[in-house]
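Make up an example, fold above all:
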Amino acid sequence: MLMKTIQIAPADNVAVALCPINAGETVQSGDLSQVVVTEAIPQGHKIALKNIAKEENIIKYGFAIGHATTDIPAGSWVHTHNMATNPVKLNIPIIRNLSSRHQKNRSVLTDSAGKTDAQRSGMRSGSFRQ
């Protein structure tokens, strides 16, 4: 059987289509189990290797990359219509503090060379102003 999917990590509940896969085809995942494709899967997109319940994590690379927004049967296309990214909460106070200070003092902030935001952005666009 030609390998049409790749399961990146053993814990993954999805595989990636290496080529377009038609509904009705049987594909083999990394652990040698087989799944019948229930709908067309575009190349590079994810296919469910097992039934994934609503709110269950989608595992790719051995990590949760999102969660199912509806029940996803094995063999189904997994994409934005049936999954969502898990929210990430960052608690990095130094970034928030720098950001708020930057907003308050935006017009007077300079870099180590004494250039302001406007001067640096002009330099990035290819022109140099003194």
Q: What stands out?
A: The mean pLDDT is 81. The first strand starts at residue 5 and ends at 6.
